[in-house]
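The data are quoted verbatim for completeness:
=====
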Amino acid sequence: MDNMDKDEKYTKRYSVLLLIMVVIFIVIISRMIYLQVYRYEDYKTRANVASREVITEKAPRGKIYDSTGNTLATNMEAYNVTFSQNEKNTDSFFTIMDNTFKILDENNEKQKDDLKLKYSKDKGFYFLFNTDDNTVKKAMEITFKNDRGIADFIKGKTYKNISDEDYNEEKQQKVKEESLKITPEQTFNFMLWKYSMYSILNLSKDEKNALNKQINAANVQDAFKIIGDLAKRIESKCSIEKLRRYVIVKDAIQMQYFTSTSPINLAENISKNTAFIFYQKMSDMPGIDVSLEPVRYYPYHNLASSVLGYISSIDSSKKDRYEEKGYSISSDKIGVTGIEAAFENYLRGKNGGKIVKVDSKGRATDELSQLASTPGYNVHLTINRDLQAVAERALKENMQRMQVDPANQGQAKNATRAAVVVQEVNTGRILALANAPDYDPNTFSVPGLLTDEKMKEYFAPDYEAFAKAYILRNGLNKTVDDLFPKQKDGTRLDKYEIYPKPFYNYATMGTLPPGSTFKALTSLAGLESGVITPDTKILDKGKFNDYPEISGKNKSYAPECEVYTESNGLRTHGLIDVRDALMVSCNYFYYETAYRLWKNAGEGTKNLDVLAKYAWKVGLGYDVTSNEKPGTGIEIQEKFGNVYSLENFKDTVCLYGKLELVDAMRQGHYGSYKFIPLEIGSNDTDKEELKNAKNKLKDMIIARIHDEGTDKNVLGYDAFVKALKQPLMDIINLSPAYKQSVEKAGSTVSRQVDIISIALGQFAVFDKAKAATAPAELINSSIGQGADEFTPLQLAGYIATVMNGGTRYKAHLVDKITDVNGNVINEFKPEIISKMNINKANLDAIKAGMVKVNQQGEGETGGGTSAQWWVGFPISTGGKTGTASYTSNSNDQKAVGRGPYGVYVSFAPVDNPKIAVCVVTYDGYQGNQSAPVARAIYENYFKDDLKKMNYTPTYPYAFDPQLKDMKDTTDTKQK
């Protein structure tokens, strides 16, 4: 009985188990049927998508040609090592990277390193941004830290659970200030933690969670201390150099994650042999691949670099702007300066791509579809390659000559910066535009050329070492801090613009006084207005002090002429007309001409613009009271200097006057007045009420200066002094520390207010307001000094405008845009900005005078100021020299090693001018010293005519710059 019961129990259990197994099998089979039959298409699609990857194919940029069809900027194919991180290779990241680094190092290849956080054993961690502007550097550092999450990290700890609405500008500024306090080393440590580099320590999951919880719970200071301790532990297992290599990769992946999932470049422009090694070993290195990409290449290297500009990676601070246009912030490059930047929208191509199938290791196995990339449009410049090459070489060789020429008496030792512009007289086309120093734009486009050393040289120069050598060479009684003072952030400021800057476009950005090259304009104004004629003669009396309203008691304008005759016991030019005045550069003649212009216009303050009105017509400045948009029209970045005019000069006086005012109040004395120093400058710690009080006082003083000579009812000296007292009291009442200083000095607030208000009245009414409206400034302007400041581009345009009879053309560098097949997309014809009809007799007189400048003379005159450089040149040329002071005080100028600008303008041929030239040499001693550059340019431009004359060039390379032609035969419509 018992045995039967047991058998029944076993049978029942077996039946239940069998039933359960049947049910399980039914469920499994049903699920399999559901997945493989009913959901087959869905899961097939998912599997296919998961095993597919989109690979972007970069489009080549459009080419840049010179005016004869030579290629100045093109593209070349380069092998790149790429890496795609995915779930399949995350755990083997360090192994993959170690193998990659080993192959690169063994084959002398460089890992791509765009990380701005650098490291060296002697310097430690430091930021290196591609700018020498300290304000921009600070902004870039903030952006760098924002992108790596440091700002959010600080915000989360400083303002916990704050809403976006309450996170106002003041709080945002506080976070920025706190992020700037994070050192480069702390930034690197933060990145080690953020990118989970503690995996090197083989921490358990619980240890990782505990570490992150501890960091997240701490305040900012303690959190960075914990992260710092973690970094030390990591560095005990791996060198800093190796860690940084890992971080470069992790950071590139993170930055690219914001915009795309495309592979990142680990190394660029590797050799073909190295590429093949990677091809052979890719099966053991999941995620690693080799791609071919177009790289921007400039076959003539430094040639026309200031025109072409360069390309570079997109700064993350501009990411929103470029993401909207479809750029990949992590991998695309854009034009930063020059034509590359100005025509970015044309030059940029449209990227293509392909969809590939990948295997379990993330390696592409099959190409599923492809969209071809489209090259950018081509830009055809007005620049002539050979003329540009001659201009650049002549500019550099001339500076070298000047530096050692004994005739310069050692005063051109610092001639290390120069610029030249060559412009067509009747079209405005720029045929050559050169700067010295220059640079090779390949440095930024060809991978591997922009080393840390180059970055430092370009964007973080060693001002201290340079200053020491500079002081020694020039025998200066100055210190490094005098010439390059340190700023609050520890960087140095090039206070006197001494250091040669390869990226500064001196030709379009460098404003400087034109010196006597302006005298052709004063000649034009005098002749066209009728205050002088071509035959008018003026007696040079040596000192221009016959008119009290000009010279006053303490003013005396002494001419700085190079050729003299004896007259009335003074060394002067005697009786002279406009032609000879131009030839010998007679200051007195032009002082008198400007005075006559002013008198003829009706005198008074309102007629001080009488000379400026002629200057504006030829592109030397603009009317600041008009709605005119200032500029020459050139496509690349430029500054537009201005001529002396009443309003422009007032603005200048007010701008510098405000700085002088703040400094005087800070020092506690102005003129003969002494008082207890009062701070009226901006201060971040000031409360809003105090800021407003300070600004009210400064605005009141500046307005008094600016309103002088207008129709407004301005306060006289006594009334203005009285009106100043209440604003002064408002500032003092909000400054307890100042009251304590007054009491400590044994004075009273009312006494100090009386003294300061009198001093400020002297400053505003008698000194600055009268200086701003003095006719003496008009006289000074007539010889290109004082407020006159222009770029070399403006000066070339002015000469071109005068020599063609008064038609001012828009300056331009681009002739046309074409597509890849040579079809014209856009064409740029000569464009007239303004026009004046110059009387032929007047123009002939100006031409004759400028011809004499370049001609040898007879007897006492000895010829023109640049005659020595034109001996034997068979084509007629005109010119004008200008020696323009860096500062009004020559002793101050010499004390810092600076010298006058050597300015030279010219045109040729005289009977039918075709081109105008401007050459400027910084610290160039004399204007005529720049003339040899113009001769070299003419020898190239007129070489066909000169060869027929059997002329032997002074500069052999002018006839043959020995440059290899780079013609694009695929562009059938290329001229």
